[in-house]
Write a structure and sequence with these properties.
Elements lengths: L37 H12 L7 E4 L6 H12 L7 E6 L9 E6 L3 H24 L3 H29 L2 E5 L8 E7 L2 E3 L1 H9 L5 H13 L1 H44 L5 H15 L11 H4 L3 E4 L9 E3 L5 H5 L1 E2 L2 E3 L3 E3 L5 E2 L2 H4 L4 E5 H5 L2 H13 L1 E2 L10 H4 L6 E2 L3 E6 L1 H10 L2 H5 L2 E4 L3 E3 L2 H18 L6 H15 L4 E3 L2 H17 L7 H15 L3 H10 L8 E3 L1 E10 L2 E15 L4 E6 L2 E3 L5 H8 L8 E8 L11 H13 L2 E3 L2 E3 L2 E2 L5 E2 L4 H15 L6 E5 L10 H8 L4 E5 L2 H9 L16 H10 L1
Parallel strand pairs: 1-16, 1-17, 8-13, 13-16, 21-27, 23-25, 27-30, 30-31
Antiparallel strand pairs: 2-3, 2-7, 4-5, 5-6, 9-12, 10-11, 14-15, 18-19, 20-26, 21-22, 22-25, 23-24, 28-29
Length: 774
């Protein structure tokens, strides 16, 4: 086995010392932007420089890939100007109170407009009543009342003389529009009411006959009295109108002067209409009327400044992690009156982040949007229409509160959604319009070339991280170790990871550990220790999982066994991936048709349709006879990782067909494609280390090892403990370029070469063909 193994020096890639661009991060220039994202940078640059036009941006990449750093860098470099900057103001709509009026002012004008209207409202509430109650306006009102009294006196004088000639008198019980006319008996030059005259009759001071005579005469004047009363009321009504007109004329003059200043300063659509409505409301409802039941002028005539443009010219950049309709699009907060009744008012209108970002950019998290499909659809409608309609909450508020419908707010916003591939696909499934609106895909690469440039840029990123977060500097060995970890995390041949978040976490913890020990710089040992600590915190150490597989008897690591071989699957915990040793059991029974099944954890896993046809072709058969290949994986394997066991499945089926036992001190790691070619699997290093830990727990005997795809040799970045065991010939990592090579290592038999229309009788393929022929 040792002669086939990969040499220990090739089990962990190491950068060339000359490619590290300095002895320490102190010597290395910082990296602007993020690591290796030229294509994403280009798309993002265009989206920021030319936003909107149905070309909103989706920044696509996994968490920790430097998404936010790239955004911050691009905005910091481009410093986009605000395309426009408005103050959105809502005011009361006097003609349609359920439809508050929107006034759009230039940047910085919202607060001054609000203050001016507050000044006018306070004047109406506090100063206007005082002005109308003081001279000279009061004198003019009194003069008009006196004139009315004179006119009424002249009107009544002929009737008074006529009554006087008959011994009667005309009296008014009170002055003003509610005066009451009465005819009385004149006795000794003084008017005596009918009630008093009846008392005189009762006291024998006058006769009953005189009473009847006087009452008949008084009654004869009823029509004239009623006519005179109507004239008086008319006179007073005219006078009252004149008096109110005095107040209204004076109020209109004062209000016109005050609002003219406002109209002159704030030149915006709707301002003059609103100011006329304010004046009309004051004249119609607050002059000559009781006002205690009316709304406070400071509320009714106030201005709700929804948002204000920035003082500087830079475009607003708003990041939000809340995707509720209220936080994104705005809402109406009702006020509460006694009795618990919600009352909506234009003063309760609140803006959302979409309005706050007007003229600039709104940054959203894709995963948050996925959980709110209704919000996504509403966002797409808003981007299509270019305006936001602010709605009152539909739950918990009264119908009266919900009836408030503010005018739509026009917006010009570039939206940037940040998320990974899964979130993008989920949003695309919610609405087909999504991909049409978010046409600019800024895709973050997961890796960069593992060449001198890639190493240099990764080191520069480390330098920028150290400088930005004031960390201890990294020396050359530490940077070398970071490059090795980067190669491992990339999980791709000849590549380094651009998942800068993972690297940054390692460097931060390493700097902390070095600082705890009083060290002045970070060395290789601290980097390796930090990487191991992070993985250990993510879950049980991989050695514990491997030990459980051995102690439970799940896998055997010595001897041979028919129909059983070792594989390695993987699981993910807290952004870390761990390998898990797994056993594959293969059995074959006769049946009507050739078929295959794969079970794991009591569940049927999907089987690659090409597995049996590929084995059939490998054995040079036209077709397989009726057999049922039943395979079981234990412990349970995630369905998405089942394809990573295909190489082991193929080897197991061939060995069982040939009646050969399989080595239990080896594990098979690899997959195959539809053409039968051996292909790599993800997280090859973690899988190898998991099987090594199992062997180490059982006791290394120099025969144990793993079979991996030959194409994965350039992805190896194994831990020191594994490399040490391989160096001492205690463990072996054997590449296999084909299924034949893999099955030869497992069985100890030659796979067989097709010659003269057959395979050798003692080869794996030859024995399998012979068994099927029987």
């Amino acid at each position: 086995m040792a002669r086939y193994a990969i040499p220990p020096e090739r089990l962990r890639w190491r950068p060339d010392n000359k490619d590290i661009p300095g002895e320490s991060t102190r010597d290395i220039p910082v990296l602007e932007g993020t690591l290796g994202q030229e294509a994403a940078t280009e798309a993002l640059r265009y989206g920021i420089a030319n936003p909107g036009h149905n070309q909103h941006v989706f920044l696509r990449g996994p968490r920790g890939s430097g998404r936010q750093r790239l955004l911050d860098s691009m905005f910091g470099t481009l410093r986009p100007k605000a395309r426009r900057s408005h103050d959105f103001c809502f005011v009361h709509n006097f003609s349609n109170p359920d439809r508050p009026r929107l006034i759009v002012l230039a940047r910085g004008e919202g607060r001054p407009f609000q203050k001016q209207m507050q000044r006018i409202a306070l004047f109406v509430r506090e100063r206007l009543p005082e002005i109308l109650a003081n001279d000279p306006i009061r004198s003019r009102r009194e003069a008009r009342r006196e004139a009315a009294e004179r006119d009424i006196g002249l009107l009544l004088r002929p009737l008074e003389k006529k009554l006087e000639s008959e011994g009667l008198a005309l009296t008014r019980s009170q002055a003003g529009p509610n005066a009451r006319l009465q005819v009385s008996v004149r006795i000794m030059g003084k008017p005596v009411s009918q009630e008093e005259f009846r008392n005189m009759v009762a006291r024998k001071q006058a006769s009953e006959e005189d009473r009847k005579k006087f009452e008949e005469r008084i009654k004869s004047y009823d029509n004239e009295i009623q006519k005179a009363s109507r004239h008086i009321r008319k006179k007073w009504q005219q006078a009252q109108r004149h008096i109110e007109q005095i107040d209204m004329t004076e109020t209109a003059r004062i209000m016109a002067e005050m609002t003219a200043e406002v109209a002159q300063r704030f030149k915006a659509e709707g301002v003059e209409t609103y100011l006329r409505e304010v004046i009309d409301d004051v004249l119609e409802k607050r002059i000559g009327h009781e006002t205690s039941e009316l709304a406070d002028p400071t509320v009714l005539y106030g201005v709700n400044v929804l948002n204000m443009g920035q003082e500087e010219d830079g475009a607003p950049i708003v990041t939000t992690h809340s995707t509720s309709p209220a936080s994104l699009f705005g809402t109406v907060d009702p006020a509460w009156r006694s009795g618990g009744r919600a009352v909506a008012s234009f003063q309760g209108i609140r803006s959302g982040t979409l309005i706050q970002a007007d003229g600039g950019f709104l940054i959203l998290d894709a995963e948050d949007l996925v959980s709110e499909p209704g919000v996504l659809r509403q966002l797409l409608r808003i981007l299509r229409a270019g305006e936001v309609t602010i709605n009152t909450p539909t739950n918990g508020w009264s119908q009266a509160a919900q009836s408030l419908r503010p005018e739509a707010v026009p917006i010009d916003v570039g939206v940037i959604i940040v998320g990974d591939q899964a979130a993008y696909e989920a949003l695309e499934s919610i609405s087909p319009e999504f991909s049409r609106r978010f046409r600019l895909l800024a895709d973050l690469e997961t890796s960069v070339p593992r060449d001198a440039k890639g190493i240099e840029r990764t080191c520069r990123f480390m330098a920028s991280l150290v400088q930005l977060e004031d960390l201890l500097p990294l020396n050359r060995p530490a940077l070398t170790s970071v490059m090795e970890i980067s190669a491992r995390l990339s999980d791709r041949p000849s590549r380094l990871t651009s998942h800068v978040g993972r690297l940054a976490d390692v460097v931060r913890e390493a700097a902390f550990l070095a600082g705890q020990e009083g060290e002045t710089e970070v060395g290789r040992e601290r980097i390796e220790e930090a990487f191991e600590r992070i993985r250990r915190r993510a879950g049980l150490p991989s050695g514990s999982r491997a030990a459980h597989s051995v102690d439970s008897g799940l896998i055997r690591l010595r001897g041979r066994s028919a129909g059983q071989l070792n594989l390695v699957t993987r699981e993910r915990l807290a952004d870390e991936t761990f390998g898990i040793p797994t056993r594959l059991d293969v059995s074959i029974i006769g049946t009507a048709h050739a078929e295959v099944s794969l079970e794991s954890g009591g569940q049927q896993l999907p089987v690659r349709h090409f597995l049996l046809p590929m084995i059939t072709e490998l054995m040079r058969l036209d077709a397989l006879p009726g057999i049922h290949v039943a395979m079981t994986l234990d412990p349970a394997v995630a369905p998405e990782d089942a394809s990573a066991t295909l190489l082991g499945q193929a080897c197991g089926v061939l060995a069982v067909l040939a009646g050969l036992s399989l080595r239990q001190d080896l594990a098979v790691i690899g997959s195959i494609d539809a053409r039968g070619q051996v292909v790599g699997v993800d997280h090859i290093n973690e899988r190898i280390e998991a099987f090594y830990d199992a062997c180490n727990h059982a006791g290394l005997n120099g025969q144990q090892g793993v079979i991996i795809p030959a194409m994965d040799r350039d992805r190896l970045a194994l831990e020191k403990r594994v490399i040490k065991a391989c160096t001492n010939d205690q463990f072996h990592i054997v590449p296999a370029a084909s299924i034949a090579e893999a099955v030869e290592r497992l069985t100890g038999k030659s796979a067989g070469i097709w010659k003269q229309d057959d395979f050798p009788e003692d080869s794996v393929l030859g024995m399998a063909r012979q068994a099927l022929a029987r």
